[in-house]
Amino acid sequence: MKKLLVLFSCLLILNACGKEKEIPSNVLVGNWKLTSLYVDPGDGSGVYVDVNSNKQITFFNDGSFTSKGDICDIYPSDEGISSGSYSVSDTTIMVAICKGKEANIDIKLILEKDLITIYYPCIEGCANKYTRQ
Questions:
Q1: Global pTM?
Q2: Quick check: is 16 in a domain?
Q3: Residue-wise burial string across 11-46, b where 16 or more C-beta atoms lie within 10 A, e elsewhere
Q4: How many domains does the chain divide into?
Q5: What pLDDT does residue 63 have?
Q6: CA-to-CA separations, 118 to 2, 32, 110, 112, 126, in angstroms, rounded
């Protein structure tokens, strides 16, 4: 009986440790428009606010992206451009150009169906949400 319990426990653990479902590399490909931004004054009371902006990001099949509006800037302005590469496997955007200058910074990206959230390296918390167009 003890052996049966150990065997059952091992099978249960092995089944629970299954492979995570991989995200297809083309899932981000297309145009994404800024729809809301999150700014926190540093006390945890921040909220997402809807914005009317022409800022957008275009992801390409080759792992590169460009943006209308500087992706390094959390604000909704569509002035400036950014470009760089992205990786679905580690959910980051490697930004090569920010504000017209070489940058080489990583920005965290979370994908939820037709919504991506980009988290900026802010101490007080800041993020932008983009919706697939």
A1: 0.75
A2: no
A3: eeeeeeeeeeeeeeeeebeeebbbbbbbbeeeeeeb
A4: 1
A5: 87
A6: 50, 12, 7, 11, 9
CA distance 29 to 23: 12
Q: What is the C-alpha to C-alpha distance for residues 69 and 53, in angstroms, rounded to an integer?
A: 10
Are 68 and 56 a contacting pair, CB within 8 Å? yes
Question: Residue 109 and residue 88: Cα distance in Å, rounded?
Answer: 9
Maximum separation of any 2 CA atoms in the chain, in Å: 70
Is residue 125 a part of any domain in this protein?
A: yes
pLDDT digits (tens, 9 = 90+) for 21-36: 445 657 889 999 999 9
Which residue matches tokens 């052996």?
3
Tokens 């902006």 belong to residue: 53
Question: Domain range holding 67?
Answer: 26-132
The Cα–Cα gap between 96 and 4 comes to: 57
- Here the CATH number for the domain that contains residue 80 is 2.40.128.270
Position 73 in a domain: yes
